[in-house]
Write a structure and sequence with these properties.
acyltransferase, N-acetyltransferase, seven-stranded mixed β-sheet, transferase, GNAT_dom, alpha+beta, Aminopeptidase, 173 residues
């Protein structure tokens, strides 16, 4: 299985809309990731991602087929030494080790590309697979907020995981 990340392009619109239009994915993402997810949503998203230099978001491809996305988003103001990691993979590709590899690559990309000291990811409390892949890749649980996220007409716990530049430099990973 040939797994890589690359910049999105407009030829990804159809596949992105097909795979992203899935409640099992959307239920664990912010409302900026709409459901249902249309080709118009995909085109607008791709155009937004291409505005950044350096790039923040990438398509995840397996054997040249788009199967998901991953992004690292630097923060500003008093959080300017932090970046948020976000990701998703199409349901037919769950459990195949794709995201573990992509997270490793994005952590390296994030620390090499941006002037940041910490990368964090926020997960829904019941998204155990996402939590496991973060822990597997050297992230540590930093916080657990009870009933702070509102999605699908319900309140959900939010768990924050983080990884720091010094942990990588000190060989803790």
């Amino acid at each position: 299985m040939n797994i890589k990340r690359r910049p999105y392009n407009l030829s990804d619109v159809s596949r992105l809309a097909e795979y992203a239009n899935n409640w099992n994915i959307s239920k664990y993402l912010s409302d900026q990731f709409p459901f249902p997810y249309t080709e118009k949503d995909a085109e607008e998203f791709i155009n937004r991602t291409l505005e950044y230099d350096p790039l923040h978001s990438f398509a995840i491809v397996v054997n040249d087929e788009l199967v998901g996305g991953i992004g690292i988003h630097p923060k500003d103001d008093i959080h300017r030494k932090n970046a948020e990691l976000g990701y998703w993979v199409a349901e037919p590709f769950w459990g195949k080790g794709i995201m573990s590899r992509m997270i490793r690559e994005m952590v390296e990309y994030g620390f090499k590309t941006f002037d940041i000291e910490r990368i964090y990811a926020a997960t829904f409390g019941d998204n155990l697979a996402s939590q496991a892949v973060l822990l597997k890749n050297g992230f540590k649980k930093e916080a657990h907020f009870t009933r702070t996220l509102y999605k699908g007409n319900a309140l959900h716990d939010e768990i924050i995981f983080g990884i720091r530049r010094e942990w990588i430099m000190d060989g803790e990973l």
